[in-house]
Amino acid sequence: MATAAALRIQIETSLASRFPAALSPQSRSFRETAATGIASVDALLEGGLPVGAISEIVGPECSGRTTLTLAFLAQCTARGQCCVWIDTGDALDPESAAASGVHLPQLLWIRCAGRVLASPSRGKGAQKIWSQLDQGLRSTDLLLQAGGFAALVLDLGGVEPLQGLRIPLATWFRFRQAADRSRCSLLVLGQASYAQSSAAAVLDLTALCAQAQGGTVLTGCSFELSRRRERFTPQSNQRKPPAVAWSASTAWAVEKSA
After folding, report:
1. pLDDT tens across 24-53, in order?
2. Of the residues 108, 125, 193, 217, which has the maximum number of CB atoms within 10 A of its CB?
3. Could you give all domains of the chain from N- to C-terminal order, each with its CATH number?
4. How confident is the model at residue 11 (pLDDT cuts 50, 70, 90)?
């Protein structure tokens, strides 16, 4: 009787023209990344956010989630790539996005409007939030399957963690497969981590302090970012990396030169 190794070689040889190394998948020794445009963050992430994978950007309100994401989209749109922002809470400010360097003609903005459905067992507010979340998930699924976008942002920042944890794991697995197939960077913004094992990277953000000029004019904010885990990190680098701090200036407080 042939050994398992010999049988595997025989099968792979017969399928070599269609499925190279069908039973011996090669381990990933490198990954494709896209820079965020923030030097300290890119250094921590060893190049930037993973391409064709899910990245979760987690933190409370005013923790820098949107600022980091807009910096990343600015890099993508500067290269002429198209991006999507799926706004489940209708919270995106286009003027702030433009001030952060995002080329708005390259950005598809989807605003999810809640539908109030009568339900004897649920409160009106909870039903509306879930409706907006459902629209966001459906839009994400449709656009990932369609392809053609360099980055897709699913903004769940206004969704309560209890609602976000109701998203089935099968949904995240489907998003992960579609992102890998279309080579799209899927960024999920939220107050907690929802994608679990389907996420390639989970980044925790915390606000440090606000920067003011003259004690009255807000000129910027400082944030801290730490990498909770990363699925493609080599075994030799599995130690928890230190957190990095970075600052962002408020565009409206900067005087334009004449």
Report:
1. 555 554 679 999 999 888 988 889 999 999
2. 193
3. 31-204 (3.40.50.300)
4. confident
Q: Is the pTM of this model over 0.90?
A: no
- Which residues lie below 8 Å from residue 222, measured CB to CB, with a gap of 6+? 207, 208, 209, 210, 211, 245, 246, 247
Instruction: Please tell me whether residue 192 adopts helix, strand or coil conformation.
Output: coil
Q: Where are the alpha helices (DSSP H) in the chain?
A: 4-14, 39-44, 65-78, 94-99, 124-146, 161-164, 169-182
Helix axes of 124-146 and 169-182: crossing angle, nearest 10 degrees: 30
d(CA 22, CA 99): 49
Long-range Cβ pairs for the range 146-149 (8 Å, 24+)? 146/182, 147/181, 147/182, 147/184, 148/82, 148/182, 149/81, 149/82, 149/83, 149/84, 149/108, 149/182, 149/184
CB 50 within 8 A of CB 203: no
pLDDT tens, residue by residue, 227-245 = 876 555 544 444 455 677 6
